[in-house]
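task queued by scheduler; priority normal; single chain, no ligands, no partner chains; default sampling; output format set to structure tokens
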Amino acid sequence: MSVRPYEPSDRETLSRIWSAAFAGGRRPKNDEPEIRPDSPIFVCEREGRLVGGFRIHEIQHTFRGGSVLSGGVAAVAVSPDRRQQGVGREMMLWAIDYLRNRRVPFASLHAFSENYYRQFGYECCGQKIEIRCDRSALNAERIAVDSVQLSASDFPLLEPCYSQFADRYNGMIRRTEWWWKRALNSDAQDRQIFAFGDPVEAYAVVKFTSDFYVDQKIEECVWSTRRGYDALMALFAGIAVNRSHISWFEPADGPAIHSRLQQGCSFAVKPAIMFRLVSLAEALQSLPVERNGEFTMQIEDALIEANRGPWSIRCSSGQLQLEPAQKGQIRISERKLVQALFGQPSFENLLRAGDIEVESRAAAREAARLFSAQQACCIDFF
């Protein structure tokens, strides 16, 4: 098997593969894939036949007060008659190698099966909570804040609110215009956007169901102030009047989990975005260094030998130095390290759970300071 860049002559076959995987076999009238330099498409061939395809988005994520690059692996699909024959594995290994050669710090994806992708070193980072309330459980007072309905082309008005929200978490996408159009589904024009405040303090994206007394899902809700959040709750209460239930997503530290626990509301942890450590040096250089310290670490990474070490990690004068060491005081897998880097679960939580081996408590304290606990979340799906 071999993997190569997409060519126009691949259109017919790749369209069939993608439609079988993601569209119930229905092919759109215009099935020409969108070609963008920051989102190349690749295909897998076996014995001269195209049997799979995927693309890799170039994504900037929020990361500990700054940004970090990931290769977002998406649209991974294999022809139905070639599944469970190693095609998916070949594409995943190739993608990791592709990103490693370009010294991209992380790979990322949304999984159809988390356990499948764990064999390639991916792990869930952060949490996303689905809140589902019946209409009688949503008692919210109206908030004295201006409201307006916007269209997808008005996304610049939403950007400051989204940026403030995103900067509270690691792993959020720093949205370009393309990501905004994708999030608001601007081509379909079937979403309504409700915004509160001037400038915007909160907004919700809703695709209304056509039937009464059924579940209504909120596509996206974002807030930068508590007043904005309360305005969203009042909106949801109004929407729920002729629905049976209403549901929306919040990060794990969202207000609902500590202020709306009551009969008629349920809270469910939903699958989070998965990250994979690709280039250790680039990932560590993205960390803010706030105090001096030093420890050594051995990384268990079955696929990327260059990550393994052991390594000496020295923080001094705001700089991080990574050098080979003779022995690791800390032993950690690549999957647990990527979680510690994004901060949820934190290094300390992983240590308490027995997922990290340490020979030195002092080294563990230094690592816990560098990989401090932070909230992580990604509300975009790709």
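post-processing summary
- Residues 2-104 form a domain with the Aminopeptidase fold (CATH 3.40.630.30).
- The chain has a mean pLDDT of 95.
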